[in-house]
């Protein structure tokens, strides 16, 4: 992967001078992205079943997506719980409109799954599993931010499991009977996801736990657990 731009924005993110205010902003963004991950995998499985086993990619993709779906389920809920445990209002998080880069990241994958082929999702998974924060980075951010350890459960989980998930999706891709167009499809999805994620992180603005804006009137917003 050509990861230079994304590596750069992550480096700037973790070196931010206001870690106490950038950590909640990042967690909110992470929650918004993860909230879409299980539904898009469920859509991919449904679409693969519609395509049927005559496509040699279908059986191994269904197997992998079912497996990865179990790995990712409720991670969005955990991020919301981390924010709540650190004193953040989860209801306020759910009232935030996800910014355009988040919508582009999730929306492109859903569109390609429904209207092209679910193999596209592999490219996005490769990106999302490839940039886990190290334990040293998490410890430094925690210490300099003054935020409680409970705010970093999702950070630590992904720092621990993402390297395995990254190796797993690469192994799946290596074992699939891919044609050249298939490889180009995965690469296109990967680059689109990388560009959107880079934009998501680049546009993050520091936000205080006690001063999150509550946007719009009270509504029956969709619960995080219902995705």
Topology, please?
Layout (H helix, E strand, L loop, with lengths): L3 H11 L4 H33 L6 H15 L2 H11 L4 H5 L5 H16 L4 H9 L6 H11 L7 H23 L4 H23 L25
Helix pairs in contact: 1-10, 2-3, 2-4, 2-6, 2-8, 6-10, 7-9, 7-10
Characterization of this structure:
The chain has one domain: Heme oxygenase-like (Heme Oxygenase, Chain A, Up-down Bundle), CATH 1.20.910. Helices cover 69% and strands 0% of the residues. It is mainly α. The protein is elongated, with a radius of gyration of 18 Å.
Question: Main attributes?
Answer:
227 residues; mainly alpha; Heme Oxygenase, Chain A; 10 helices; 0% strand; elongated; disordered C terminus
Order of helices and strands: HHHHHHHHHH
CATH class categorisation: Mainly Alpha
CATH fold type: Heme Oxygenase, Chain A
CATH level-two architecture:
Up-down Bundle
Query: Per DSSP, what share of the residues sits in E-state strands of 2 or more residues?
Result: under 5%
Question: What is the straight-line distance between the termini?
Answer: 30 Å
